[in-house]
Write a structure and sequence with these properties.
It is a single chain. This protein has about 525 residues and is α/β, with parallel strands linked by helices. The protein is about 40% helix and about 20% strand. The strands form four sheets. The protein has an eight-stranded mixed β-sheet, sandwiched between helices. A six-stranded parallel β-sheet has the order 9-16-13-10-12-11, with helices on both faces. β6 (about 115-120), α5 and β7 (about 145-150) form a beta-alpha-beta unit. α1 packs across α2 (about 25-40), α7 (about 185-190) packs across α10 (about 250-260) and α16 packs across α19 (about 490-495). Residues about 210-215 and about 465-475 have low confidence and may be disordered.
Length: about 525
């Protein structure tokens, strides 16, 4: 499909590309565009930026592209992440994090020398990506020569096509290798693990109200669903298990089962956070099976690790040793660990959400979406046929998992985003943010401005606020009239990569250092 994709990008200012995990979107499409420019003697005009949601993705993809072009990283293909970059005057294809591109827009608002921008993994709908799309939509109206390409494996193409006024979409069919999928009932059947009523992972009365997703299927319904294929102990376990809890014992048993019953191949385990990664590794270390390092080697992977520690996961172990990578959703997109054949998905993820009562941001554990589950499954089929195990039942998959995650802009505080809008001089935040793919409510914007005003970061002139209830949410503000300006303190807070309240504490701490009161 190379000719079709290159022609679509060349003939349109905005293109949306979707395709299954492993079809080559991230590594091949930017190269096809670059090679087309070179073949037409326009190579010097090409200056392509490809954004990635995470540091390790930017590094890994840059190394892969450089390898395919028989070059070193930093020549034609390079990368730029926070506090680290490998690029040169020859670099024509730059991989960077979304945050790096937003920082560049502060000093070069028109991206004058850039020819193409590829925004990868747009389905994640994180705050930076949605913010970038609003800026790029305005920028494309000013710079007609700039090309924008949106890419994702599980993209809702129509949503983004409509947002960019019906731009063309291209779908890449097929996948590299097939992946066999199993769920909780299959894991219980294969391992022989049983969950008893006094188990830590059984439904407790005190937990029934805390999480409504614990179980909603009766034992009779379970028999109808599973009796023909599964043993009675599986049905009994499913009737009492609290699926919202991560069953570390069962995951360890599953890893042992995979190691004993399958050929060579690494195992990638998805956990919701650092604490859960540590707990699973500790649980593994308690097992005599893992004490023999000649059998299994375990690597953690999360965003707080250094780049060197993160890239250690790509090390291929000696023959006969099983590699197990325990990761957060950092490994969900754009990373190819070449020897991964098996995926174990805990089915849980941690999301940032705003606690409106405490006016604080919290980290909440919840079910993954169908889109994320598909991405995780795809990690097993990148280089050979694979197997994925999901630690939730078919009933939970069909009834509890949402199609897509709620965009981050609709579930977190907007203080930092408001500061960035004012710093970049993009206009009034209450107006600018209504241009988003899924705009936040006026109430959320008002709360953010009030908090920043209280910190002394912005000066606001409040107009009339229409508090009429909206059709969808009774508490939604319909309109918000306000004029806001960045103060000197606000300018410095906008340049610090921390929460505004933490940033003010840091600035005041330095200012008052050594003074006695």
């Amino acid at each position: 499909m190379s000719d079709e994709i290159v022609n679509t990008i060349a003939n349109n200012q905005i293109t949306v590309i979707s395709g299954d995990t492993g079809c080559g979107k991230t590594t091949q499409v930017p190269q096809l565009v670059l090679d087309d420019y070179i073949q037409n003697n326009r190579g010097a005009e090409a200056n392509i930026i490809v954004t990635q949601p995470r540091r390790i993705s930017a590094i890994g993809v840059a190394e892969r592209i450089a390898s395919e072009r028989c070059e070193k990283v930093g020549e034609t293909a390079g990368y730029s992440i926070r506090l680290e970059n490998k690029r040169s005057r020859r670099t024509r294809l730059l991989l960077c994090t979304t945050g790096i591109l937003l920082r560049r827009l502060q000093c070069d608002p028109d991206l004058a020398t850039v020819s193409h921008i590829f925004v990868d993994e747009v389905h994640e709908r994180d705050l930076d990506t949605d913010f970038l799309l609003i800026i790029l939509k305005d920028l494309l109206a000013r710079r007609k020569s700039l090309k924008l390409v949106l890419m994702s494996a599980t993209l809702n193409a129509n949503t983004f096509s409509e947002y960019f006024n019906g731009c063309p979409t291209a779908s890449i069919p097929g996948r590299a290798h097939p992946v066999q999928e199993f769920r909780l009932e299959d894991v219980l059947q294969a391992t022989g693990h049983e969950i008893t009523r006094d188990s830590d992972y059984a439904i407790k009365a005190k937990n029934a109200k805390k999480d409504q997703t614990t179980h909603t299927c009766s034992k009779t319904e379970l028999k109808k669903l599973y009796q023909q294929k599964y043993d009675s102990h599986v049905i009994e376990s499913l009737s009492i298990v609290d699926e919202s809890l991560i069953n570390y014992e069962l995951i360890v048993k599953l890893i042992e089962y995979i190691t004993d019953n399958n050929d060579e191949g690494a195992i990638l385990c998805f956990m919701p956070g650092f604490q859960e990664i540590t707990k699973l590794i500790d649980e593994c270390n308690k097992s005599s099976f893992f004490m023999d390092s000649s059998k299994v080697i375990v690597y953690p992977l999360h965003s707080s690790l250094s780049t060197a520690e993160q890239t250690a996961i790509f090390t291929v172990p000696p023959k006969g040793v099983r590699k197990v990578v325990v990761a957060t959703n950092i490994a969900e997109t754009s990373i190819t660990i070449e020897d991964v054949v098996f995926v174990v998905d805990a089915g849980r993820v941690k999301e940032n959400r705003q606690d409106e009562v405490a006016q604080m941001q919290t980290l909440v554990e919840c079910w993954v979406s169908h889109a994320s589950a598909k991405q995780r499954r795809g990690r097993a089929g990148r280089v050979r046929p694979g197997i994925s195990y999901h630690m939730y039942s078919t009933h939970t998959h069909d009834n509890e998992l949402k199609e897509y995650q709620l965009p981050e802009m609709l579930r977190v505080g907007l203080e930092d985003l408001v500061l960035q809008v004012l710093l970049l001089d993009l206009g009034e935040p209450s107006v600018f943010l209504t241009k988003a793919v899924n705009p936040p409510s006026a109430l959320a914007i008002k709360n953010s401005l009030k908090l920043l005003e209280g910190l002394g970061a912005v000066d606001c002139e409040w107009g009339e606020i229409d508090m009429r209830p909206g059709p969808a949410e009774p508490t939604t503000c319909e309109t918000l009239q306000v004029g806001s300006n960045l103060t000197a303190l606000g300018f410095h807070l906008a340049t610090l990569p921390v929460d505004p309240r933490v940033g003010k504490m840091m600035i005041y701490g330095k200012s008052f250092h050594g003074q006695k009161y």
